[in-house]
Amino acid sequence: MQIDLSHPDFYNALPLLRQIEAAGFEAYFVGGSVRDALLGLPIHDVDIASSAYPEEIKQIFRKTVDTGIQHGTVMVLDHGTGYEVTTFRTESTYQDFRRPDHVTFVRSLEEDLKRRDFTVNALAVKQDGTVVDLFGGLDDLAARRLVAVGNAHDRFHEDALRMMRAVRFESQLDFAIEAQTEAAIAENAPLLEKISIERIASEFTRLLLGIARKAGVTTFLETGLFKYVPNLATEEVGLRHFASLSDAQLPDAESAWTLLATCLQVDAGKMLRDLKQANALISHVQHATALVGALPNATSLQLFDAGAEAVATAAVVQPYRQPDFDADGLLARYQALPIHSAKDLTISGQDLIKAGMTPGPLLGKTLRHLTEQVVADAIENEPTILLHAAFA
Ligand code: ATP
Ligand code: MG
Q1: Which domain holds residue 376?
Q2: Is 159 marked as a binding-site residue?
Q3: Where's the Poly A polymerase head domain (predicted)?
Q4: Confidence of residue 96 (pLDDT cuts 50, 70, 90)
Q5: In 3-state terms, what secondary structure has residue 92?
């Protein structure tokens, strides 16, 4: 089987393969870019695997960066693009179900491909475009199925994150997980407790954003993986409801987490903090979840308090819960609010102080009260009117 390497991402990286081979080593394109190219999907970050050791790679290329040298990865800089070149390796002993105790560099491509997670991720491509398929990855790709390389039970025992990767790929690629591989996930699900929350959450977010979210979430439930994720463990009913909603792909992490949070009994902020998500995401989802909770009858003040970003997210999310929801109407209502921030009031705290109000909690309360009145269209946003109302 040949692969077309005229795609610019591969084509531009071909000189690297040639240079490594000219120095007497083997080099291949491997991993997700090969899989995605064969599926006709857009590719991102082309990874290269080589028999050359990191020190040897550094001698071949002028510009390199030690991005992950302890794992055998060197970044080669070529005309402004960085390519990760990783030495063939085996990950011999895993004692804690998550990280190899040490990696051993090897000269054999087969040894390297053996330690990869799924057969469709264990394909390699030579510089002439020949696909090296040692584990039936091409057949599995054609059948759209995820099969662990080698013994599934052993592979999940070595690295429990692979189970989350399986459900992530199921959703991302719309592949089915082969029966033995799925059974091994169900059997080893408790090992997920050994994996860092960040890595679990990262795979779960990608699951939420996939084209076959429903299938991914369903397997996440059926295999019991959900029982080992903080805040989701107690949410089987909510997760089932989530899986029953429209399967249309979600556009971003904010809308994905908002839709999920509205289906669960847990506090969105707590869940996302426990899952170690970024503060900006947490705040966005909290605001959007609060607003979605008030739909379809949200007040102007609820729209105002949510803010532009959360309103946009709510407009994306609500149609999943209520197919006839008028999302454009919601956005138009937000646009039409008299003000969009307390700063848009025509008087400030300073103005109130000048007019005789003492600085303190009352000042804040008064400004908030004026804001509420203006947002509700109860008074006009005019300085004299606002001043009068402030002291009324
Ligand atoms: P994507 O880039 O779309 O996330 P990918 O398959 O490239 O998909 P990466 O995490 O970039 O995923 O990993 C690159 C390759 O490294 C994988 O295709 C797989 O061969 C291997 N790999 C990554 N993580 C693991 C793991 N936990 N266990 C075994 N092999 C892995
Ligand atoms: Mg990748």
Answers
A1: 343-390
A2: yes
A3: 27-146
A4: low
A5: coil
Residues contacting 278, CB < 8 A, separation 6+: none
Same domain as 258, residue 220: no
- Give the pLDDT confidence score for residue 89 in this predicted structure: 95
Q: Is residue 242 part of a domain?
A: no
Number of domains comprising the chain:
4
Question: Within its chain, how far is the Cα of 97 from the centroid?
Answer: 23
Distance 116 CA to ligand 1 centre (A): 7
Point out the ligand nearest to the CA of residue 42.
1
CA distances from 46 to 8, 23, 76, 158, 263 (A): 11, 21, 12, 26, 38
368 is in an annotated binding site: no
Q: Name the residue with tokens 């390389």.
A: 149
pLDDT tier at 50 (50, 70, 90 boundaries)?
Answer: very high
Considering only CA atoms, which of 16, 23, 10 is closest in space to residue 85?
A: 16
DSSP character at residue 91:
E
Is the CB of residue 247 less than 8 Å from the CB of residue 213? yes
Q: Is pTM, for the whole model, over 0.90?
A: yes
- pLDDT of 98 reads 66
Taking CB atoms within 8 Å and a gap of at least 24, the contacts of 71-74 are: 71/103, 72/103, 72/105
